[in-house]
Recover the amino acids of this structure.
């Protein structure tokens, strides 16, 4: 199983980014897919997750700004981030079935 997160970049405060988590070797329909982030000097924290029935849950810090959806035909899960803030700056990771992808950097400039 291989996971790959992509779509990060530099964005201004209030901007949007859409991260992708692609998987090979398994189906993202199985079990829960999670998005985490880690800022420099801080512990990795849960951002949100989506289960096999497309139910989602989010950290309080991103509720109302971030959403998660999927494209089952492409075996990709997306993290849509709107209203970005400087404190959202971090490396973002997706995880599934105990596997972690390489992260993608998100930088929000003020």
């Amino acid at each position: 199983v291989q996971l790959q997160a992509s779509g990060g970049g530099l964005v201004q405060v209030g901007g949007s980014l859409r991260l992708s988590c692609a998987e090979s070797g398994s189906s993202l329909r199985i079990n829960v897919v999670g998005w985490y982030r880690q800022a420099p000097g801080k512990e990795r924290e849960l951002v949100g997750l989506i289960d096999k029935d497309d139910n989602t849950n989010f950290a309080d810090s991103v509720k109302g700004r971030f959403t998660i959806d999927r494209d089952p035909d492409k075996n990709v899960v997306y993290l849509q981030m709107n209203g970005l803030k400087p404190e959202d700056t971090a490396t973002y990771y997706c995880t599934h079935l105990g596997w972690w992808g390489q992260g993608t950097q998100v930088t929000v400039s003020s």
Q: What stands out?
A: The two ends are 38 Å apart (CA to CA). Residues 48 and 97 are 15 Å apart (CA to CA). The first strand starts at residue 2 and ends at 6.
